[in-house]
Amino acid sequence: MWPYFGTSYVADGQATGNVSSLAGQPGTLAQGMSFTYPYGEGPDSWVDEFDAAGGAVCLRDQSSTGRVVSYKLTGGYRTVCSAVIFGALRGPDRNRLMRAYLNHLLHGTGLAEPDRGVRGAGQVRVSPNPASGLVEFQTTGRASSVVVLDASGRSVTECCITDGKALWDASNVPAGTYFVVDKGSGQTVPFVLLH
Q1: pLDDT tens for residues 51-64?
Q2: Global confidence as pTM
Q3: pLDDT, tens digit, for every residue of 96-146?
Q4: What does 20-85 look like in DSSP terms, one character per residue?
Q5: Burial level of 69, CB count in 10 A (0-12/13-18/19+)?
Q6: Which single residue of 24, 51, 91, 125 could bond 8 by disulfide (Cβ 3.0 to 4.6 Å)?
């Protein structure tokens, strides 16, 4: 199983007394991040020790022991293998880490926009994608508005198009997969919100 996660299992952790802090490693998705962990409490029981085997150790504890490994197979899938409980991480970088996890895991999942080469009439484009906060919709057709739908097809908002574009503040909308529909052409483009 471990090769599928680009991870090398090193050892079981101890019954308690494993992790008090975690540091993001340079060049990884957690670069520059740091966390405290409830040392000696419930989440600190039997926290496995990892190393990289094709992946990258992105979080190491206070003893430089690997606890989280990210992996991406060229042209294939991506994983994050964590021995620590995300909900037990403490510190201001938690949201940043979840955003980094989602960005890593959702990259290349088929949510890319259509080819941006030649654009015909009535096409819509989402920027940035994945997005966080302010989202811009651009259209090349005569649409007067676009509709944003959630993954179940429910309407989330409708944005008026002015000079070929509309801006939407999605900062209070839950993270996930959404779809924008150009009301002029009916074209639908998927996009991802990260927070």
Answers
A1: 999 999 999 999 99
A2: 0.60
A3: 999 899 888 876 544 444 444 334 445 888 988 888 889 999 887 666 889
A4: SEEEEPTTSTTTT-EEE--TTSGGGSS--EEEESSSEEEEEETTS-EEEEEEE-TTS-EEEEESS-
A5: buried
A6: 51
